[in-house]
Design a protein that fits this description.
single chain, 189 residues, globular
Length: 189
């Protein structure tokens, strides 16, 4: 977990929010349709043809998120549960997929020379099909209990930040800053 290296206290604070999990998941079943809308909006930001369109979809995502939280009465602790897990797990998922994506774009890249002799290794070229599978999995998370949802919503926010605020990685460990905070900045005209 790279976050513990950069900010041990923020990491510890994030780990502490697991105590709110049971209370969060009690509310979840009612929130699932709204979560589906949020996840769909985030996926659409990745597919948007222009930065302006991506920013507009990002604003819609944040508005939908705010509406869901208000309608279902999420207090500060439950909101912290969401944003801190997105910060922790979403960034990890982002690093996993972004590394693979970068390896694809660097033709000839091999993490280990031994990979050439592995008959199952496809030179990272299966990224696009893997990405499509990941997006199917992301959509399914709206209807599933468990922290995996936050892996995907955090990861998709990170990808949107790559597009709209490329220097976001310099700030993600700042005190009190989470992906959602940076996204608010990135999409505010």
């Amino acid at each position: 977990v790279m976050q513990v290296k950069f900010d041990p206290q923020k990491f510890a604070d994030t780990e502490a929010i697991y105590e709110y999990g049971a209370r969060y998941w009690e509310k979840d079943r009612e929130m699932q349709p709204a979560w589906g809308e949020e996840i769909d909006l985030l996926i659409k930001t990745r597919e948007a043809s222009s930065d302006g369109d991506a920013a507009e979809l990002g604003r819609q995502f944040l508005a939908q998120r705010e509406t869901r939280r208000r309608e279902f009465g999420l207090d500060a602790d439950l909101i912290a549960y969401e944003v801190r897990l997105e910060w922790l797990e979403g960034i990890a998922k982002y690093v996993e997929l972004r590394s693979w994506e970068l390896a694809v774009s660097n033709h000839g890249y091999l993490s280990l020379p031994e990979m050439v002799s592995d008959p199952d290794f496809k030179d990272y070229e299966t990224f696009e099909s893997h990405w499509n599978q990941e997006m199917r999995t992301a959509r399914e998370q709206a209807n599933r209990e468990g922290d995996t949802r936050f892996y995907y919503t955090g990861m998709l926010q990170a990808y949107l930040l790559d597009r709209l605020m490329p220097d976001w990685k310099e700030r993600f460990t700042e005190e009190g800053i989470h992906l959602e905070d940076l996204l608010h900045e990135a999409v505010t005209p």
